[in-house]
Write a structure and sequence with these properties.
single chain, alpha+beta
Length: 161
């Protein structure tokens, strides 16, 4: 039986089908680790793979992109690995050591994960340096730049009525 994952703000898959972005909610039982999440994302029929966007406890987010056998990961705050299994799994997947200093809130992974969609590494770095933003706000900005902002905002309830 799949373990219930607490603290998930939202978990979405975004993919392009025939040039049109689709955003779909992911079942929380696929959020145990990066491998399981990547496997779940591979089921989507996207042109060029799928992007997973997971926000946890208004604390951090994980972006994961799968295309064929390739999995790319970005963890917004490496110190989240001290508390969260999914973040630990991301750090392990990236082959990085566990963080030793809790004050060292830095991203880990592939900052250019969405570079081909218009969210380049430098822009991603600037966004991740803005400690005043919550993960959903950062992911909304990322989704907008990548071309699926409206579908993302609708899915997480950020759209004003």
């Amino acid at each position: 039986m799949a373990e219930l994952i607490d603290g998930v703000d939202f978990a979405l898959a975004a993919y392009r089908e025939e040039g049109v972005w689709q955003v779909q909610e992911l079942a929380h039982d696929v959020l145990g680790d990066i491998e399981t999440l990547a496997h779940a994302l591979r089921r989507f029929p996207g042109d060029g793979g799928a992007v997973g966007l997971v926000a946890m406890d208004e604390d951090f987010f994980i972006l994961i992109r799968v295309a064929g056998p390739t999995t790319r990961v970005l963890l917004s705050d490496i110190t989240a690995a001290d508390e969260w299994e999914l973040a630990r799994s991301a750090v392990a997947f990236l082959g990085l050591p566990m963080p030793e200093d809790e004050d060292d809130q830095v991203p880990a992974g592939d900052l250019d994960l969405l570079g081909d969609l218009g969210m380049h590494a430098m822009d991603m770095g600037v966004l991740l340096d803005d400690y005043d933003l919550y993960p959903d706000e950062m992911l909304s900005d990322i989704a907008r730049r990548a071309g699926f902002g409206e579908a993302f905002d609708d899915a997480v309830g950020l759209t004003s009525a």
